[in-house]
Amino acid sequence: MEQQKHNTELNSAKLSDTKLGNKVALITGAGQGVGQGIAIALAKQGARIAVAGRTEAKLKQTCELIHAFGGEAQPFIIDITDAASTTDCVEAVVSHFGGLNILVNNAQESPLGLLNELTEIELERGWQSGPMATFRLMKLCYPYLKGDGSIINLASSASKRWDMSGYGGYAAVKEAIRSLTRTAANEWGPDNIRSNVILPVAKSPGLGWWAEHNPEEAQAFLNTIPLQRFGDCVDDIGQFVAMMCSDESRYLNGQSIALDGGQAYLG
Fold it and tell me: Is residue 219 part of a domain?
């Protein structure tokens, strides 16, 4: 037991000397998939992670994965569609860690379906969990991010599909997130807060479910990726986000970057 404790302390000391040593990151939807991958990658670079989401068991699982290599993580329950819950979460994170340096808005409900089938309720939930939640969290975290902050918001290249059938609602809310991010980059840049967007294609549980239930469409989708594979949540998505949040990318601001193996052209 003492040896295990000693090893953990050594690992923690090593992590504090890495790219994100002792920075605090709040990541929504971090219980699985891309959010979990980003949480693990940032923790490996020394960040202390606020693992936020709706399902406590999943949040604890992510924390355990981080604790296993000596990282620091704490679970926080949040309903990103509820203003009070969001406010309480941010306050709890700052109280626990003593500050906040990185915000990753990852959680999102996806309003998918043809326009004649997509309901107003589904589109509204996409709006509330996407642009509105992103807007709310950015503003709540702004006072703590001033001076040395990085915001990473998640969007999608769905609006760049030549055939957007079935993706109109999803693309609409994701494009709104890109607009909010670009605005924050301009308005908050003087406060030394950098705001950027990633548009990932990764083998998350959600994509896995979709591929299993739509095998032909999934194969056709995969064929449009030049690298011919889906991204790994930790190694392909998370590690890049860690670099975006580090001093190595201190001049990166207001950009949308497709982490999709070359599939989308954003020009």
Answer: no
CA 87 to chain centre: 18
Listed in sequence order, the residues at least 6 apart from 18 whose beta carbon sits closer than 8 Å to its beta carbon are: 44, 45, 46
> Which of the following is catalytic: 167, 170, 251, 265?
170
**What pLDDT shows up at residue 267?**
79
Residue 214 belongs to a domain: no
Q: Which domain holds residue 72?
A: 2-202+231-259
Judge whether 183 lies within some domain. Answer: yes
Mean pLDDT of 174-196: 98
* Tokens of residue 177, six digits: 């997130």
Closest CA to 195 of 256, 260, 106: 256
**CATH code at position 191:** 3.40.50.720
Strand (E) positions, the chain?
24-28, 48-53, 73-77, 102-105, 149-154, 193-200, 256-259
> Could you tell me which of 191, 204, 190, 81 has the C-alpha nearest to residue 134?
81
Catalytic (active site) residue 265: no
The pLDDT of residue 163 is 86
The number of folded domains in the chain is 1
Q: Give the separation between CA 161 and CA 204, rounded to whole angstroms.
A: 20
Backbone angles phi, psi at 177, to 5 degrees: -65, -40
**Phi, psi of 122, deg, nearest 5:** -65, -45
Position 252 in a domain: yes
